[in-house]
Design goal:
The protein is mainly alpha-helical. 41% of the residues lie in helices and 2% in strands.
């Protein structure tokens, strides 16, 4: 829901908050735009498998799409990679298009400073996966430092690109620090993404 709503409610960026005004903490659910988004989202749901089958999982919806029972499937980037990486075995090569959701049309950058080149405001932030680290302050300092060093090591783009490319990780593959090397087909990053079925 939020990946659709934020395109309309966060045209100035994430500083606008989500469900509450960041200055007054008043709910924004009374905003006419919020009501319009709820009605729009309801229309989407009524065209989804929910209409005919009730509540289903994203895995079931993915199976419906593979069977040709749905014309559109959308999800976070992580689960979508399963569809992309398995397109050959599902006879879907060349028939898939991978695009971000449509956004709100904007007039200019004063209205939507982060609008894309197509003149639309898209969801300003989507964190669909990642890692969090905590260092226990009760352990000796050398162990704390070792834990911190490990966290930095696995977060380093030169190391973590494999986890991002791996279909089973569900991590977001669209962070620029992981994709900047993909323009070079001989780079380790590009080879790994291609190895896992990304085209």
């Amino acid at each position: 829901f939020w990946s659709i709503a934020s395109s309309f409610l966060q045209t100035q960026g994430t500083s606008q908050g989500t469900f509450f005004d960041t200055e007054t903490f008043d709910p924004i659910s009374t905003d006419p735009a919020f009501i319009d988004i709820l009605l729009f989202y309801d229309k989407l749901v009524q065209q989804s498998p929910f209409r005919d089958y009730g509540e289903t999982s994203w895995q079931t919806n993915l199976d419906y799409f593979r069977q040709g029972r749905c014309v559109l499937w959308y999800n976070y980037p992580g689960p979508t990679r399963i569809l992309v990486s398995e397109q050959k075995q599902n006879n879907m090569t060349g028939v898939l298009n991978y695009r971000q959701l449509p956004g709100k049309s904007c007039i200019d950058r004063s209205q939507c400073p982060y609008m894309s080149d197509d003149g639309a405001s898209h969801a300003p932030f989507l964190a669909s996966g990642g890692m969090t680290f905590a260092v226990n302050n009760r352990v000796p300092k050398p162990q704390q430092q070792a834990g911190l060093d490990f966290a930095f090591f696995v977060s380093d783009p030169a190391v973590s690109y494999w986890d991002v490319a791996f279909p089973g990780s569900f991590l977001d593959p669209l962070r620029s620090r992981h994709t900047v090397a993909l323009s070079n087909p001989d780079s380790p990053e590009a080879k790994t993404f291609l190895e896992f079925g990304w085209e």
